[in-house]
Amino acid sequence: MIGNCKKKIIIITSAFVIALIGLFVCYNHDLDHKEIASGHLIPSNGEYVYYSIVRENDLEDIYNCSYDLPNYDFDFKNHSYIITFGYEIVELSYSLISQPIFHSFNYYVPRVQLLNKKDDLCRIYEIPKVNIDVDPDNYKRNVYFVKE
């Protein structure tokens, strides 16, 4: 009788611990984002992706997206940066389970909610330092549109 009670307690405790771990791994961590610059997109021969992550070695390419982007003193040591092409970020988050499935990259793919109103601006946002990037196999992964 006492053995059955111990088994039930162990099973219940194990299920509770597994549920907590699953909840922690799937939990969306919201990222505060602040628009720091915007400029009109230069028309290109192709289409822009929805967003991209700005790296230190990408700055020349970023300024080639728009002639009127103001210079900004990027702080890559303490912040990460994301640029959108024709859309405004409404919400930005990531979860620990959001790594690309078929690659062994060590970054998370953010969940990006964009305003469903395309315009001709590129916007650069500053976010807290976090290791996020676009999924190389599917840049549309975790991109959602919301109405105004």
Please tell me about this protein's structure.
This protein has helices spanning 2-26, 59-63, and strands at 29-30, 34-40, 51-54, 79-85, 89-94, 111-115, 121-128, 143-146. The strands form 2 sheets. It has a 4-stranded mixed sheet with strand order 1-5-6-8, with no helix packed on it. A 4-stranded antiparallel sheet has the order 2-7-4-3, with no helix packed on it. The protein is of the alpha+beta class. The longest helix has 25 residues, at 2-26. The protein has 2 helices and 8 strands; from the N terminus they run H-E-E-E-H-E-E-E-E-E. Helix content is 20%, strand content 29%.
Short description:
The protein is an alpha+beta fold and 148 residues long.
Keywords for this entry:
about 150 residues, four-stranded mixed β-sheet, about 30% strand, 8 strands, four-stranded antiparallel β-sheet, alpha+beta
Secondary structure: elements and pairs:
Layout (H helix, E strand, L loop, with lengths): L1 H25 L2 E2 L3 E7 L10 E4 L4 H5 L15 E7 L3 E6 L16 E5 L5 E8 L14 E4 L2
Parallel strand pairs: 6-8
Antiparallel strand pairs: 1-5, 2-7, 3-4, 4-7, 5-6
Strand percentage: 25-35%
Query: What is the string of SSEs from the N terminus onward?
Result: HEEEHEEEEE
Mean pLDDT: 81
- Low-confidence runs of at least 5 consecutive residues: none
Spatially, the strands of the biggest sheet line up as: 1-5-6-8
The biggest beta sheet is recorded as:
4 strands, mixed
As a whole number of angstroms, the C-alpha radius of gyration is 20 Å
Overall 3D form: elongated
Q: What class, by secondary structure content?
A: alpha+beta
Number of strands: 8
What's the N-to-C terminus distance? 61 Å
Provide a count of the helices. 2
- Helix fraction bin: 10-25%
